[in-house]
Amino acid sequence: MSQDQLDARRREILAGARACFARYGYEGATVRRLEEQTGLSRGAIFHHFRDKDSLFLAVAEDDTATMVDTVARHGLVQVMRDLLGRAHSEEVPGWLGTQLEVSRRLRTDPDFATRWAARSAAITEATRKRLTRQRDAGALREDVDVDTLALFLELAYDGLVLRLATGQPADGFGPVLDLVEEAVRRRR
């Protein structure tokens, strides 16, 4: 197989695994279910990933990399807007499932928490850098430090994720995100 084919197969496995982990959780995503979801054999899946834990971590890392990129370019509020924009699509349940499973494992698996710390810090760092650039450009309020603004945005994000995870409708959140964004902007 060419590198392009290997990369495509890897993305295919990640997409199927994301859906499987979202539907069944980490423990319930058995190898048999992963095979069914991806349409590939155990050998094909684990040719690309050492084990189920490595596969889950790759799914979570993939989601985190996408999020870090969006935060760096457009800010954390845009991540929330994107999430709302896809609230009824197939992508969100998989993404939410991964986020919730990461949260659960952070609470219950010390080894996972240790391995995940650097990845989590990347989102926070991207948020702080973006806020610093915005402040330097004169777009952010100056009466609150960047760390506090970052924490405020992270709490808003966590709240949105929780609401969506509990199945609450996403309607009406657009004006709330406008308010969140306005709260960090410089007052004119």
CATH class: Mainly Alpha
Please identify the structural class as seen in this structure: mainly alpha
SS element count, helices: 9
Coarse shape: elongated
Mean pLDDT: 87
Which short descriptors sum up this protein?
188 residues; Tetracycline Repressor, domain 2; 9 helices
Describe the structure.
Helices cover 80% and strands 0% of the residues. It has nine helices and no strands. The chain has a single domain (51-184), classed as Orthogonal Bundle (Tetracycline Repressor, domain 2), CATH 1.10.357.10. The protein has helices at 3-28, 31-38, 42-48, 52-74, 76-85, 91-108, 110-136, 146-165, 173-184. The radius of gyration is 18 Å and the shape is elongated. It is mainly alpha-helical and 188 residues long. The longest helix is centred in the middle third of the chain and has 27 residues, at 110-136.
